[in-house]
Design brief:
This protein has 468 residues and is mainly α. It contains 20 helices and no strands. The protein has two domains: 373 residues, MFS general substrate transporter like domains (Growth Hormone, Chain: A, Up-down Bundle), CATH 1.20.1250.20; 55 residues.
Length: 468
Amino acid sequence: MNRHTAALVLITAVELMVFLDGTIVNVALPSIGARLQLSEASLAWVTNAYLLAFGGCMLVGGRVADVLGARRVFTFGLALFTGASALAGLADDPWLLLAARALQGIAAAVTVPAQLALLTRTFTDPAARRRAFGVWGAMGAVGAALGTAAGGLLTEAFGWRSIFLINLPVGAVALLFTGRLLPADETGGHRSARRLDLPGAVLGTSGLLLLGYAIGAFADPATRIPALVALFAALLLLAAFTAVQARSTAPLMPLRLLGVRQVSGSAVVSALVGAVHVPAFVLLTLYLQNSQGYSPVQSGLAVLPVALAALVASRTALPVLTERFGTHSLLWAGLALQAAALAWFATVPATVHYASDILPAALLLGVGLPASFIGVTAPAVTAVEQADAGVTAGIVNTAQRIGSGLGVAALLLLASHVTGTAGYLAGLRTAFAAAAVLALLGCLLALVLLRPAPTASVLLAPRTPVSR
């Protein structure tokens, strides 16, 4: 194994761990509630604390990677994630577990943009970069699907603490090899001249955190008034953030980046990617457990083919298809496959036959997810200067986190409304159909917003400098 391959294994193993932790906790929530005496409302924050911190801090994480150096920030984020995982696994008090989950989310927000910056620096050859982004994109899809299956198996075999402690050996080994395998940070030049925009960091992070809370809280009738207050405050903070960025000499998020079609287009489509794939797993789990009587472990294993299909596709067909047709085609095709899978799920019967009713759509979803992850990220981070790669990755991934929260809240609210008039199964079918429409919308927007320029190659071309 050469050094570049080993670096890719390291980066994608951390990517898998980060995204797996977004879903691995779901099956273990009843066990956590019983041990720590948490109510259902409080249990939701075991998941939300991670997701909110992840989405709210990613923009800052991206710029920090640009200012301080991608490898240095990746190492810090990985160490923080590993330590927070140990804290969560050993927690005996609810507040300590929630604090540890928030720390995990902050660490993930720092680590993911640094990963993408490191990938663009490690793999400069277009063909090698295509393959690297293909594997990286698959890990996000595999992690989202594998988390549900792994959570059930680990909780049943070793208890709920194991879902956090499993991160320790992965993190320790990754930290051991980070300095040896990943490219050293540049000294001098643009990076050393940058400084972190602290007012922008405070305003942007606060606004995104409040927005994330408002999205999650709005789905619960008991917290809708606080959600509306939080939403209003978030919009004010984000408006102030935009004004500060327009005047700052060293902005946290240079507004000029939004003028780059690949960046703004990727952000819009990325929000729809998030609004589709996260609710898909939630709705499928609800259908299998609440409607069909599957146990948590059985429902986890039922979605395992999604992860397997994503892994196989990313190692075989997707790199070839990317080279032949480009990331733009990969993105809209991936979203089209997800739309087809969700439309299939929208016809689920009252009594399921797994091989004919679930498995075909699960395989379509498994191929579509990594295709859309690769296609929505690569155009943005390869269209800007190296010094802006981290914050660009933060923009695209923040949009996806916000889209995920909006998608889950809106589709579960829709399912609940239809359930009240037409029954539980009808509610789930309607939500699946709405998710299919969102995927189709993403497909159409990808065709319009991210179409290649007439003179551009369909391959991942070297980065086009952005004027300052």
